[in-house]
Each structure stands twice: as structure tokens, then as C-alpha cells.
Amino acid sequence: MNQDMLLLQQGARLLGIELDGQQLARFDLYQRELLQWNAKTNLISKKTAEEIATRHFLDSLTAARYIRPENARMVDIGAGAGFPGLPLKIALPSIQLCLLETNRKKVSFLKHIQRLLNLDGVFTLQDRTENIVRGEQWREKFDVAVSRASLKLPELMPLGQYFLVPGGLLITLKGPDVSPEVEAAFSGKNSSNIFQLYQEDINLPLLGPPRKIIILEKAK
């Protein structure tokens, strides 16, 4: 096992996740493909390309403990290169995952990596959220919505309201200071009646400075 996968395995254990050989092999292949594609297409920053196992894979897995039910229907809003949706799918194979992304090159990568990793129950949707919410096809179709730094809370909460079933969870991974976002999100009309807010600190040395995970439960 190479050093990056060893770090990932150790970090996942600290989160209560035990990755088996097949899962680690998928993560390893994911990392190698991501580096190859990133040399031609800007999928992730060059700075974080040196720390994919921790800055992208492990960071994504911090959301795993909050996902329910076990076979949750989950949408990743603004999936980019697949974070946090694909690492969560590798670690929690029973979830049904929709990757929502607008960028054509990123969508090509997502479809490629899904085929390469032979992941069942993954669907990639290329569209803009403003187009999706005009229709009824995806309204209240998901148990969980996840997002990783692609949108701020005031923009994300209406999407969660649209995509999630009553009682569904909107989970977003943020930096250490999200107070301005939270205040802006809940200063709007009736926000507190739509979502119940939970926040937790993530203190994992492998991830660097402490981070926040925001969990919003849609009213039943």
C-alpha cells in the first residue's frame, strides 16, 4: 500500500470508517486518474493536487457519519471532480448517488471515473440548478444533499428545500468561520421554520486547521 492510501486508511479509522482492500484500490485509481486529467483540465488546484488523499478524499469522508438511511438517495450539488459524493459512495456503497455538475469537462471526468471504478448506483446530471428547480422531476427525491464549498448557505438552502424529502439532511463542509454565512442564511424569512441547524467542529490533524460541518435538517 502506498503512503497516500495508508494515510487515508488511518484517517478514515479516526472517523470510524474501515476501508477494505477493494475500497482502497478504488481510491488509489481515482487519485491516479485525477492527477492525469488535472494535467490537462483544471479539476482541482495544483496546491491540493499534492494532498488528494487527505485534502479531498478524507475531507469528504467527514460527512459519512451523518448520512442516513444506510441506502440514502443522495445528491452532490456542484460535484466538481466528485467531492464529496464519490468518496462517500466508495466508503458507503449502498447509497444511491446523483452528481450534479454544470461544467462539461468535469462531467466527462465524473462519467469516466464512475465507469472506471465500476460504481453502481451513480448518476451524473449535467444542468444548472436554476433550470432544475423550475421543474418537478427532482423535487423531494433525495434523503441527503451534500455540497463542498461550491455554494454559500443562503444559496444552498433553497436547493436543499427543493431536493430533499421532509426530514432530509443538507450537509455542507466549510472552513472554520461560517458565522457570517449562517447569520445571512437565517436572517431570511422563515428560514428557521424550514431547517433545523446543527454545527460540529472537525479536528483531524491530517486535514490541517479545524473545519466546520454544517447539517441542516428539513422540517417534516
> Order of strands side by side in the largest beta sheet?
3-2-1-4-5-7-6
Mean pLDDT: 94
Q: Give the number of helices.
A: 10
Major sheet, described briefly? 7 strands, mixed
Order of helices and strands: HHHHEHEHEHEHEHHEE
Looking at this structure, what is the CATH superfamily? Vaccinia Virus protein VP39
Just give the CATH class: Alpha Beta
- The outline comes out as globular
Compile the SSE list and pairings.
Elements: H1 3-14, H2 21-38, H3 46-49, H4 52-61, E1 73-77, H5 85-91, E2 96-101, H6 104-117, E3 122-126, H7 129-132, E4 142-148, H8 153-163, E5 164-174, H9 179-186, H10 191-194, E6 195-202, E7 211-218
Helix pairs in contact: 1-4, 2-6, 4-5, 8-9
Report on this model:
With 220 residues, the protein is of the alpha/beta class. It has one domain: Vaccinia Virus protein VP39 (Rossmann fold). Helices cover 42% and strands 23% of the residues. It contains ten helices and seven strands. The chain has a seven-stranded mixed sheet with strand order 3-2-1-4-5-7-6, with helices on both faces. A hairpin with an 8-residue loop joins β6 and β7. The longest helix is centred in the N-terminal third of the chain and has 18 residues.
